[in-house]
């Protein structure tokens, strides 16, 4: 089925009986968020099942949903992933709400044009730090992400890629991103040719992994560019009054692959509420530094955390790491409802690459 059509379709959500209009080529999730309907979702590209709900009437093209995210049985029973559901008629959808995980207040996404302000290789060339200046400020909470909208000249279609905002909301219309270099990736290739002054388009904010800020002690875990949303939270907290105790475990295979080491080191030296451990899995660590630890993030957390019922957890990066750390923390007693994770699923999916 081809979802490219010029027709506007109506989507009605039950049980609240809210109706929205979905633009041609727009997925139902994006249309709902733009219309102010607050829904739970994760990767926005059909790779997790966070936005799975039930089709009651009508038809959608859901062919971009990954088989890992929605089972054959679920499909047979009319389950759909809203993030890649394109209506081919007016539809009615039953929303399954999770009362154990109340959603943060929705900030409606908006589209923005931006100009590249700074672009530089960091982490020994393993990541790119990109700063863009928006034509108009964008409201967001620390921990949220934006989606770049890119033209694919080969197919004539638009391609979307999600990137967490690394800057604090206080930085105004300058947004910083920290992007892992994916050789031959669509955005990875495009990034190589971007220079200051180039124009880009993005929309946001998206994501429900924003900082909850209710004073509970926090443990954070990240690998690679997964540090981006956590940096936003830390930079935001550095500027504000609410400062719970925070411990960050930030991992990479070798020391050079870590980004923002100077900033994180300075923060941990200057603030008594922040501790940081750089976890290095495949290289010897300096014996004269109390910041570096040998082993993976999950191994270090397993050693340090005896019981976690008092903790909130923020976990970002490769989906495999997020799953392992989530499993560990649940086993240590961190309530499921207090674990917030953003799994960096690639949009062009080959899960074997990113486990
Ligand atoms: C909510 C969310 C937030 C995200 N935030 C960030 C962020 O802040 N920083 C960031 O760097 N990325 C982030 N990502 C991932 C990002 O959206 C892209 O998927 C990633 O940058 C690859 O895009 P690409 O166009 O370069 O590669 P694609 O063209 O999508 O992929 C090309 C090939 O590379 C493989 N591939 C893609 N990613 C990886 C990887 N990480 N490791 C190994 N192989 C891979 C793909 O499976 C595919 O085979 C986030 C993803 C999500 C869902």
Question: How would you describe the overall organization of this protein?
Answer:
This protein is α/β, with parallel strands linked by helices and 355 residues long. The protein folds into three domains: 86 residues, Ubiquitin-like (UB roll), CATH 3.10.20.30; 97 residues, Translation factors (Elongation Factor Tu (Ef-tu), domain 3, Beta Barrel); 138 residues, Nucleotide-binding domain of ferredoxin-NADP reductase (FNR) module (Rossmann fold, 3-Layer(aba) Sandwich). Helices cover 19% and strands 33% of the residues. The protein is built from eight helices and 19 strands. Strands 11-10-13-8-9-12 form a six-stranded antiparallel sheet. A six-stranded parallel sheet has the order 17-16-15-14-18-19, with helices on both faces. Helix 6 runs parallel beside helix 7. The longest helix has 13 residues. The chain is globular and about 65 Å long. It holds the Pfam family Fer2. This is 2Fe-2S iron-sulfur cluster-binding protein. Its cofactor is FAD. Keywords: 2Fe-2S, Iron, Iron-sulfur, Metal-binding.
């Amino acid at each position: 089925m081809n979802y490219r059509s010029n027709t506007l379709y109506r989507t009605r959500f039950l049980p609240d009986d809210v109706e929205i209009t979905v633009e041609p080529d727009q997925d139902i999730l994006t249309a709902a968020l733009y219309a102010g309907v607050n829904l739970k979702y994760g990767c926005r590209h059909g790779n997790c099942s966070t936005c799975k709900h039930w089709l009651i009437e009508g038809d959608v093209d859901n062919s971009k949903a990954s088989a890992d995210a929605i089972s054959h049985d679920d499909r047979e029973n009319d389950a759909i992933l809203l993030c890649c559901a394109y209506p081919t008629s007016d539809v009615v959808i039953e929303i399954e709400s999770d009362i154990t995980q109340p959603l943060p207040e929705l900030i409606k996404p908006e589209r923005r044009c931006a100009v590249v302000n700074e672009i530089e290789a960091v982490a020994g060339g393993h990541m790119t730090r990109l700063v863009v200046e928006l034509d108009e400020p964008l409201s967001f909470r620390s921990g949220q992400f934006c989606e770049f909208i890119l033209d694919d000249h080969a197919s004539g279609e638009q391609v979307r890629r999600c990137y967490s905002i690394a800057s604090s909301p206080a930085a105004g219309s300058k947004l910083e991103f920290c992007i892992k270099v994916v050789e031959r990736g669509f955005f990875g290739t495009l990034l190589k040719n971007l220079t200051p002054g180039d124009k880009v388009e993005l929309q946001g904010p998206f994501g429900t992994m924003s900082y909850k800020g209710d004073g509970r002690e926090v443990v954070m875990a990240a690998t690679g560019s997964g540090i981006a949303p956590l940096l936003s939270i830390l930079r935001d907290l550095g500027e504000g009054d609410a400062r719970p105790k925070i411990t960050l475990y930030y991992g990479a295979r070798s020391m050079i692959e870590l980004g923002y080491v100077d900033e994180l080191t300075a923060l941990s030296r200057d603030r008594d509420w922040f501790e940081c451990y750089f976890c290095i899995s495949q290289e010897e660590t300096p014996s004269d530094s109390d910041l570096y630890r040998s082993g993976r993030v999950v191994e270090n957390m397993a050693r340090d955390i005896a019981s976690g019922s008092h903790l909130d957890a923020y976990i970002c990066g490769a989906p495999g790491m997020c799953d392992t750390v989530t499993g560990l923390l649940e086993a240590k007693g961190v309530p499921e409802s207090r674990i917030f994770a953003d799994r960096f699923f690639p949009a062009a999916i080959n899960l074997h690459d990113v486990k």
